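re: that chain from earlier
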Amino acid sequence: MQKQATTLEGVYIITPQVFGDNRGWFCETYTVEKFHQIGIDTVFVQDNQSYSKGKNTIRGLHFQNQPAAQVKLLRCTRGKILDVVVDIRKGSPQYGKWLSVELSAENKKMIYIPKGFAHGFLTLSEDVEVQYKVDHLYSPEHDRSILFNDPDIGIDWGIENPILSEKDLKAPLLKESDVNYVFGENC
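^ sequence. v structure.
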């Protein structure tokens, strides 16, 4: 298991060790011990899975407000996605900054996203499955979104007309949201 730092402090790319032979391959995607060894001590309490049938589907940007904030460990198990993370911690030197990484069934990479970050992804292929672990249960009253094309954030999704849910189409801009993360205080 390897942990690679990204341009957003606290966000990591995790690459599992893959063992292959003439039958196929095997890898451990999560073990408490191996994550402790690379400095991640998060206790996950819920696993989620999503399916997107069409290419160019955007899901996000999503997060849960405090006190139900979630750490996420996410991987793409079928197809390919452009995964996007945005720092939404008020007062952070990286506030409003974003990064993207390609996750796929083929590269088997995962992304670790701490509290204080919004998350979304774009499907780069048809028939995409994404699986992720969270450290806090889903809480509808704390569930929030930010508009995927917020001009103040300026994410380059690389497409013109994405497929979006009604919820994501109506999401507020970051500056109009009620995000309650404060850098250094609650995340």
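The two ends are 25 Å apart (CA to CA).
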